[in-house]
Queue: 4 jobs
Job 1
Amino acid sequence: MMQFGLNHMTAPRLNARDLLAMAAGLGCVGVEFRNDLDGPLFQGEAPEDIGAAARAANLRILALAEVKAFNVEPAAQLTDTLALMQTAVACGAEGIALIPFVADAQSPRADQRHTLRAALEVLLPPLEDHGLIGLIEPLGFANSTLRFKADVVSVLDDMNRPACLGLVHDTFHHHLAGEDTVHADVTALVHVSGVTDPAPTADQMTDAHRVLVDAGDRLGNLDQLQTLRAAGYDGAVSFEAFAPEIHQMTRPADALARSKEFITSHLARWAA
């Protein structure tokens, strides 16, 4: 049975407690909270209180997002990163999201691997000290400074795959990067969103195109999820939609329930 999660970006108008309530009502296993929405994280509530509310709802806090541009001068932003780690520990989050910088121009893949390794060497000790997973999420945009999951896996292999580091498979970014291979054995979290607008090509797609997954999806979400499952991934699949029309929905739980049913019913049919 697929485990679903809910990223706060999908329903940013909800406060933290309402997000927990909606996630519980949808039968999700956990949520991801974000520090890049309007207002302070948890709307200023103490992280310990939000953690207690999550546990009371039988929900995990899958991650706090995000350390932005984590692969650019990581030592210079270590104070802010440590503060996020401390908040994650206080609320009982399992990890923190590590998001790469998107530059003005493309960078060689060798450079991307080098900067990733340098950043992880800075972040590894505090992640281990705090008992957290660093969730590395490559972005498939052409100018991303960490575009390919294969490069993340290569670096993790060189580092003997530290237990405190994991990969995020984002179905949108997987499509944009043109990757074929999934890496289920190092994947710690999956993000799902769909693109139904027929106009943009892959290199024209932006976060604003990211809606919930339905029959009009162009990203191959069902194929990606089936491939991940067949390769052994059994972790959370978290809804992460950025499109303004999703954010403006007055009944987001209904739309999420429909998308959840669409995904589960089709994957069950394939597995039968």
Note: Residues 7-271 form a domain with the TIM Barrel fold (CATH 3.20.20.150).
Job 2
Amino acid sequence: MTDLSQPFPVPFLTTVGDFAVAFVLGTLIGAERQWRQRSAGLRTTVLVALGAAAFADLGVRLAGPAGSTRVVAYIVSGIGFLGAGVILKEGANIRGINTAGTLWCSAAVGAFCGCGYSAEATLLTVFILAGNTLLRPLVNYINRRPIDARATEAQYAIHALCDPADVSDVRDLLFSELEAAHYPIREIATLSDSEELVELAATLVPTNAKPDELDAVVAALEKAGPIKTATWTVSTTA
């Protein structure tokens, strides 16, 4: 039990120090997230670090190293629910994965602090900040490079514009032309629909398609009566 004869017992002062370190390190990580206007910013990151530190410290105080081990295990799994809340799916795009990863790492920083490993927590903070800042130029460089079908699995789509009355015939043409070119279709979706024009997109099963073959398919489609214009696009798979 804690010795209450002292106004500030040693374990309490240790806890104060651990919380202070978790607060400072969480602030550093959160300030970078807030600066970039992420969904989980300064306050969220600080609270995650402090909460993890508090639970880890409580585990140490109640059951020693064995208690901290159990608490840290629950922190690792429990923070996943919080991270899932910041991940958003917008159409084919997924946002928030990096933010969720940062929150997860912030919990690790707090757990280190709560267990009394301030130096290790500081080191982890440096690596987290490096990952979110120093790697950005490399990520931007890779993202701006043209998609190379030989280096990545790409997703191709054939787009066709037609009159609303010809939608059924155009669907059949897309199926027949792509089947003749040996490109299986995953789905045909309507991207836009108005009284004048309808845009259909035939998404192919992710594969390594040949641009010249897709150009030939597009040319054949444009020669068909119901189709006004046709083109193809490529994007990376999720």
Note: The helical segments are 10-35, 42-84, 97-114, 118-133, 136-144, 167-180, 211-223.
Job 3
Amino acid sequence: MTTTIEAAAARLRDAAAVDTAVVEGPRVLRRLPEGVEPRPYELFEVRPLGPLIGAEIHGVDLRDKISAELRAELNRALLEFKVVFFRDQAIDSDRQQEIGRMWGELETNPFIEQGDDAFIARFAKGAMPVSYENVWHTDVTWREAPALGAILRLVEVPPMGGDTMWADMAAAYDNLPARIKERIEGRTAVHDVIPGFARFLDEERLLEWQDRFPPVEHPVVRTHPETGRKTLFVNVSFTTRIVGLEKEESDEILRFLFQQAHVPEFQVRFPWREGSVAFWDNRATQHYAVNDYHPHPRVVERVAIVGDRPF
């Protein structure tokens, strides 16, 4: 097990340090699938935070009843912008869960501290390892059916810092060189719980949880179940190898693919304020919690929505 932990840590360091992903020239920045035209939103105002990913929703009070029509239009915004934000919302964890259940069954995460409810994952600086932050990842890809999405609410906001970033992995796929697309077409990759948690769980617990959640295979490029769009679906926290390739080639390609989340044109950065809520599509994004607020506290609560098996 020690060898496995050391290898996982080394792979994370290599992926962070080696930038093989420099592709110069203009980038294709499409919010919507090719051939799909944007439509106006009738029930709220949408304020994009950039040309590609992320938008604030104004004119919705999340305390109020969400009708079927409003839910459908919010879902359309989520699919278009990949992550949507709400300001000045006075909701509690019960309401947060109610909203999440409008998109599906909620899931628990056995590795994350729960709040007062099993479906609330609580991230509190000082009560959790620093390692949960400062890494690009997609949530729980070690599951056979990774989360559809998640709703995050700040309970305690630091006076500065503590932003969260998201990257559009559909745009990341669109901009891959043709030779890379050809090499990964139809391939699967192994996702393992060990790399993401080896740095702060003891070996006994790692073995216990790996028995419960053995490695799974997912497509390197998944098809979004609602939009039909191709999306790059590997991440440095949990993806260990591409099936059918020699280790050296698999490592090289994965390093390249991992770096796509680092491209600024694919990103949005959200500065939190009291009352802010974020809802993101976990099938189409990676995210990164910026740890730059020490020594101030930062407490967030998240609910995650059960997804389906990637295809």
Note: Confidence is low (pLDDT under 50) at residues 15-20, 127-131.
Job 4
Amino acid sequence: MPRAANPLLAGVAGRCPNCGEGHLFEGFLKVAPRCEACGFDLAKADSGDGPAVFVILIAGLLVAFGALFTEVALAPPVWVHLIVWLPATLVIVLALLRPFKGAMLAAQFMNKASEARHD
């Protein structure tokens, strides 16, 4: 079974952290049950809420700083903030969520977290 050169980069790219070839996701965020290239069992991987927390913190920081800077520098009307920052929030969150989930799943793979026992 071939190994990916860097499982973390493979996860960020949405590829299997074991081989770097197959798809990690079946849909936008649904993890595939198996890698189609190497047959690695991806079903046992669970990232929980970790990726969402990181994405919320990063997107919140970017949008809050951007809105505050825009308000202080330009003082636009409220509707300008709504037109600019609501779509920016959506784009940032959607752009970061999948790579962060892939990175968290790859980190689990690298640290063999699925082998942990809960006895």
Note: Residues 7-115 form one domain.
